[in-house]
Amino acid sequence: MLLIRNKTVLILSLSALTGLSTSCKHDPKEIPEVGIEKAEPTPLIIEVPQGIPPLPVPEENPLTIEGVALGRKLFYDERLSKDQTQSCASCHIDEHGYADSNRFSIGVEGLSGSRNAMAITNLAYAPGFFWDGRAKTLEIQALEPVPNPLEMNLSWPVALERLNADEKYREEFKLVFGVDWIDSIDVAKAIAQFERTMISGNSKYDKFKRGQAEFTPLELEGLDLFRTESADCFHCHAEPLFMGFEYLSNGVQGEITDLGLGGITGRPQDMGLFKPPTLRNIEYTAPYMHDGRFNTLEEVVEFYNSGVHVDEVNVSPLMKKSNRFNGDLDLTPRQKEALVAFLKTLSDEDFIKNPDFQDPDK
Ligand code: HEC
Ligand code: HEC
Asked: How far apart are CA 119 and CA 123, in angstroms?
């Protein structure tokens, strides 16, 4: 039985419901009235699109239908910001691939940081969060934006007062986490559940891999450049997720002004290292790099072609390989065009338009 609109992605596991069928009740929330101890949320099993790895879900925070719905509501709730004007979705915007088109997002106090907002896409697979990897899990990540003075700037105690004053939220948290009082850990868990369902796997590239779409000669050429030593992108943005699993320097800074991972660990060998983000939906998520320095994919490709600072301390050895002369790839104009054409095959309209990820109140 499919209960959720995005039928290719979300499938309800019936295991929880079958146990209830003997009670002649259809709504699990009605269970307490018939004398069973407490209502349980409904386990959710995500069936990912073909070609995407099975979804990793931590044991401590299993997905449930109600948990994901609660996380989605919180993600769009402006009450989580000081002046109640900003939600997570203010900087993670659907049509921009759940990133921000501003170079630096502006928080509720009108202040901005020095980093570009990151895309929320396939994050269940990522080993760490933020450009510098300072959050190890999505749950830990979700605790940061609310009190961050450059973002929502609301202390957790005040945020929790607001949430606990809302009877509906109290009921929802009770059902999902079995708690009478909402705390920040459970808020973060709900948001993380929602984010894990934000899976993109229906781009032209995916359809091509499944034999459902054809690439143009230019796109094919781009794919070949991408996944061979010719342009050598695949080492750090590996198929099929196109994200990196280690922190690296692609030599974008030259002189290091943002320490990246090194700012967290303090280790000299980590200075200037960043998370290679997913390239899925990259067409929508401009501007690019941790500091949003490039506005177009053409600029990004030109950077890799001729602008890499090979002398940057800790630059990845991959940026200096023998196919590169002083970091240059020497791509022809046609090859650069092909790479950009290929990158655009990673655009997944079904993802950015998926109603299950959008504001539940609209
Ligand atoms: C004012 C803008 C703003 C708001 C509001 C905001 N974010 Fe972000 N988000 C950012 C920026 C900027 C970064 C990158 C910061 C960094 O790396 O230091 C980011 C990074 C992230 C990441 C890391 C993604 C990755 O690939 O590692 C996640 C997840 C995320 N935000 C989720 C949220 C959630 C959940 C909320 C609401 C509770 C939220 N954000 C609110 C701007 C914002
Ligand atoms: C040595 C590893 C490495 C290689 C090889 C590499 N990248 Fe990257 N890429 C990164 C890292 C690390 C970042 C983030 C850097 C930063 O923001 O400082 C990044 C960022 C990007 C971004 C910006 C993403 C965003 O959301 O802002 C794009 C686009 C990109 N790379 C495309 C490519 C292409 C195309 C190639 C091949 C020509 C390539 N990369 C090769 C490591 C690599």
From this structure: 9
